[in-house]
Design goal:
single chain, DNA Binding (I), subunit A, 2 domains, six-stranded mixed sheet
Length: 209
């Protein structure tokens, strides 16, 4: 059974007032926005969507728990049991995100699918490191085209050398993704299919916060 703490870490897509995707937040922050009446729930049903306030979402959660229990994460309090919304919309925010995928550790792991780019094996994020293909001691930069996932063993073997110098080979060249790779992984889960209604090519660069 999913713990209360991990349920509050569930991911929620945030739309601006104009229904444009802007970021992804955790459920705890989403509920805070809903409770303070700064946002509403957007629920996609049969290709269309329905808007809910915090109170009406609490009411509809009773039916969802009976008929769609497995399709939702649930938060249990002393007063109610409520489904974690998958999408919320802010009432007073019109801006759109910059159209660029942020270079960070999490996005590189997602781009490389948590797979060592030298031995090709999959690892947990705790067992992975970031490797500079052209080492920093040789002038290598922090860039999409020069950073890859590497397991601890392969990274230690390569050391401060290039792949050619160390006799190693990348399983594929590193590249700058056009779309946010972390979101692409989540869209592979049936639980997040409703996000696709709001994520066209224009909004794939939203950040995970």
């Amino acid at each position: 059974m999913t713990s209360h703490a991990s349920t509050l870490d569930a991911r929620v897509l945030v739309l601006n007032r104009l229904y444009g995707a802007i970021r992804i937040i955790d459920a705890a922050r989403a509920f805070s926005l809903l409770f303070r009446e700064l946002a509403e729930v957007i629920n996609v049903e049969d290709g269309s969507y329905i808007n809910y306030t915090f109170n009406t979402w609490s009411e509809v959660s009773v039916l969802q728990r009976e008929y769609e229990c497995e399709q939702h994460d649930w938060v249990h309090t002393s007063r109610l049991v409520i489904a974690v919304p998958k999408i919320i919309r802010l009432f007073r925010y019109d801006r759109f995100p910059k159209q660029q995928v942020k270079l960070n550790r999490r996005n590189i792991y997602a781009r490389d699918e948590s797979r060592c780019q030298y031995c090709g094996r999959h690892f947990s994020t705790k067992e992975l490191t970031l490797d500079h293909v052209k080492p920093r001691v040789q002038g290598g930069e922090n860039s999409w085209e020069n950073l890859v996932c590497a397991c601890v063993k392969c990274n230690a073997r390569k050391g401060g050398r290039t792949p050619i110098q160390s006799g190693m080979k990348l399983i594929r060249p590193p590249f700058r993704p056009k779309r946010n790779p972390a979101i692409a992984l989540r869209l592979g889960s049936p639980k997040y299919q409703s996000w696709k209604a709001f994520l066209d090519d224009a909004y794939w660069s939203i950040e995970l916060t």
